Amino acid sequence: MGKIAAVTGNEAVANALRQANPDVCSxxxxxxxTDIVQRFASYVSNGQVDTELINAESEHSSMSAAxxxxxxGGRVVTATSSQGLxxxxxxxxxxxATNLPIIMPLVNRALxxxxxxxxxxxxxxxxxxxxxxxxxxxxxxxxxxxxxxAFRIGEHKDLRLPVMVCMDGFIISHSIERIExxxxxxxxxxxxxxVNVNPLLDLEHPKSYGPLILTDxxxxxxxxxxxxxxxxxxxxxxxxxxxxxxxGRRYGLFESYRLEDAEIGMVVLxxxxxxxxxxxxxxxxKGIRAxxxxxxxxRPFPYTEIADALKHLKAVCVMDRADSYGxxxxxxxxxxSALYQVTGNGSGVAKPKLINKIYGLxxxxxxxxxxxxxxxxxDAIAKGAPVKLVKDYIGVRE
Amino acid sequence: MATELKLKELSxxxxxxxxxxxxxxxxxxxxxxxxxxxxxxxPVVISNATGCLEVSSCIQDLTAWxxxxxxxxxxxxxxxxxxxxxxxxxxxxxxxxPENVKFIAFGGDGGTYDIGFQSLSGAMxxxxxxLYICYDNGAYMNTGIQRxxxxxxxxxxxxSPAGSAIPGKLQPRKDLTKIMAAHGIPYAAQASxxxxxxxxxKVRKAHEIKGPKFMNIIAPCNRGWRSQTxxxxxxxxLAVETCYWPLYEVEDGKVKVTVKPKEKKPVAEFMKxxxxxxxxxxxxxxxxxxxxxxxxxxxxxxxxxEDAAE
Lengths: 398, 310
Hints:
The complex is a heterodimer of chains A (398) and B (310). Chain A has 398 residues and is α/β, with parallel strands linked by helices. Chain A has helices spanning 9-20, 34-45, 59-73, 82-97, 122-126, 140-154, 184-191, 218-229, 232-247, 272-285, 303-310, 330-343, 368-382, and strands spanning 4-8, 24-27, 52-55, 76-77, 103-108, 133-136, 163-168, 176-180, 208-209, 254-257, 264-267, 290-295, 297-299, 315-320, 353-358, 391-393. Chain A has two domains: 4-247, Rossmann fold (3-Layer(aba) Sandwich); 255-393, Rossmann fold. Chain A has 13 helices and 16 strands. Chain A has a six-stranded mixed sheet, sandwiched between helices. In chain A, strands 5-7-6-13 form a four-stranded mixed sheet. A three-stranded parallel sheet of chain A has the order 3-2-4, with helices on both faces. The relative contact order of chain A is 0.11. Chain B has twelve helices and ten strands. Chain B has helices at 7-10, 29-39, 52-57, 77-92, 109-114, 117-125, 176-181, 196-207, 222-225, 232-241, 268-271, 286-309; strands at residues 44-48, 58-59, 62-63, 69-70, 102-108, 130-136, 187-191, 212-218, 247-251, 254-259. In chain B, strand 7, helix 8 (196-207) and strand 8 form a beta-alpha-beta unit. Chain B is globular. Chains A and B meet through strand 3, helix 3, helix 4 and strand 9 of A and strand 1, strand 2, strand 4, helix 4 and helix 6 of B. Strand 9 (208-209) of chain A pairs parallel with strand 4 (69-70) of chain B.
């Protein structure tokens, strides 16, 4: 068993990056991620890693340099949050479409305006269509474990895709929790040596990266990206199985909490899942069959598996810590789509009634009382009360 | 042993930027690229900003580059090659690799003076061992001749059109070479394909210096300059002889004018064959034409003073 420590989410993730010993790390400071890259810079300065650091002059250049370094051939990491991810947006698409397995912790934070440095999921949700694999993490332990697994997933020969490891800004990045580290050697062996595919620095076999492709083949190229994404679930599960053998900690595509015999359920990402699980227990104590589903792999989205896990419920609330103004919350759209394929389309299977709550924007506290409010409403809907409002806000001042 | 800078010897070197690219006939940019690469006697990795050179040289599964080449976006040729160079540095510590690999970024003036300026400035400040080459044709030619900060005073472009109220671009060009020299980098220079020996010597000098180097090379564009397709070298020569495009270098802060025209020609000689300046020769625009000459005279005299001061 590895060392048990009381650390912040940022420190845990920084240690995962140290243990992976990347060849290059490009960085740019942004709250609340800064702590990760400054810790990493100290590992470099103190010779604890072999990494070369690039202190970029912007996140756009940070991702551009990561792309250059990764194409050159080697293991590359960076990290960001919020506006930084937004500035990288153009380059995120290029990293994934070029099949560059860059690993990037994303410390989730709200987007401007108004300027707000606190945690919500607007940044990560805005990047869901960039072709990156997204793993979401409830706490420091999961952020650490996901970061370690991200290297195996992204660098897998069937994928070669960049991976974003998401955790909540401040709530997880800056709170001290108990976590269990793996030994450095265990991580090194688990991740393995970086294997190059068509490195630019193979000077004897020159490659051209980044061609112009117009109408005749662009669409085939894009479909190929979708096909590669189709291979991700299996790799994630295989890597999770190996990780379980190593650590004793089990991961899947999502986590089910007291869901099997539940009648009402909540779908919620990241740290709010922890708070909500306590409320699930309290409702169970009252004899109400509540349950919870916490997605881990958000891109690619495991539609069938998640729909199968939810389809028996009478009522489901999808919690979104990001908004689409004039639309439903981003996760609600996924869950609706997933369930429709299983319970709609003339299948004859009863549909769970669905509601969507927007919560916790800009770091607004998510309290057990809010989860209680949601489960109380779900209980009433399950018992026949009409759905008054599909999308609503909770924890907001009127 | 480096190839002698003699046409006979250089012509025996295989091209690493080879035939088949789709640059326009008469374009100055591929000539510049060929000269730079002919002068390079080391293994070389290239990054390319989005632009004419990029879209015309690597299309689908066809590439004109016989050396590692990467394009990722418009504004980041410097950051991209910085990443490649850093990975090389990192791998050298543990993997057997050829030594003295050179890293070159090519960008047009839009991708260098404007949208790529921050990325270039950052890469120079971080002291990456690289040579950034701007092929300057004075506008966004790839998207259809839009004004950039390299567009000369008075020029007619599609976004600074010479009209009845406004006679083309009203601002002088940004002096990027000086700005790059002001970064304190070990080498910054201006060159022209009309003076190929000077250009190639500068490239060779740059390659022998560790750290960040910048070269600004004029590259006539007959589409945007509204000139004859066979006038590319003639116009780049006139740019030098009129002191519109002085050939100089700044090495460790020391300014040296490398080519002093025997007789400084009036800038009108450079401008007259170009349709983009046609309106400046029409009655009523004499003052603007005069201002163009004054700007050039002022910059040339300042440059000569800096040269003499060393």
